Amino acid sequence: MGGRLDGVALVTGAGSGIGRSVAIALCLAGVTHLYITDINEEGVSGTSNAIKSVLPQSTTPEITTCLGDISTPEFVAELFSKIEHLDYAVNCAGVLGENKPTAEVSLAEFDRINSINYRGLWMCVKEELKLILKNDVTPYRGFTVTKEEAEIRGQRGAIVNIASQLGIVGKTQASVYTASKAAVLSMTRSDSIDYSKPPHHIRINSICPGVIQTPMTTSEDGKVSERLRDAISIAPMDRMGLPSEIADTAVFLCSGESSFITGTGVVVDGGYIIN
């Protein structure tokens, strides 16, 4: 599993933004079959069309679209009943919370955020692991000095969870959201301890994006949400990140080029957390 990802991949939350860019990037990297899911039917269709528009027809992978809500066990069961084999999974589905301090957040809002950002992601990871554990360990296919080195760098597959810079640092009036993303990071660390070591050889990592230019963070006319302006200015690079920058990181973490990286949260935030 070198730079060319020639297996089967799943992207949740693929209807727009980061998820859509990750889906496109995985196809450009060479996956042969891509499963994409989102609650937004128009978004899933748009992602499928975007993939077909950037890849020649001869190299476009088989694409299976699955419409549904990953916070519901019924949909998660339906989704994974369709997937017989899996090499890579990138879990992008997530929602922002209301801009309120804890004392003003309703239980319904708490449950909404955590049912998607943490519980839904956990349910997907559980099923992804079951599938990837069925794979043989594939030697690394990039450059190595010896055959033994290629064997050492082999893996059954890889999982990438989209967390957030706010899973590492705090933010005013965002305690429920930040905690949901911290949970993703903690789960990633613990799962990597259980599954990265022999005989499993499954690497599990998270990405911690900063403020990324997506439909969730900008209005229809492309203007930045007022609540995000301060966060953008805190980062030394003083700009929003692009979904493609997160997608590139996801492809790297799936590929054999990152064969000694597991259990970490790769921060892609323009320097936000160092300030």
Automatic annotation (TrEMBL):
* Record keywords: NADP, Oxidoreductase
Q: Where are the transmembrane segments?
A: none
Q: Which Pfam families match?
A: adh_short_C2 (PF13561)
Q: Which CDD domains match?
A: SDR_c
- UniProt KW GTP-binding keyword: no
Residues in the signal sequence = none
Q: Which InterPro entries match?
A: NAD(P)-bd_dom_sf, SDR_fam
Highest taxon, organism lineage: Eukaryota
Asked whether the UniProt record includes Manganese among its keywords, one would answer no
Molecular function, one GO term: oxidoreductase activity
Spell out the family assignment given in the record's similarity comment. Belongs to the short-chain dehydrogenases/reductases (SDR) family.
The protein's name: 2-(R)-hydroxypropyl-CoM dehydrogenase
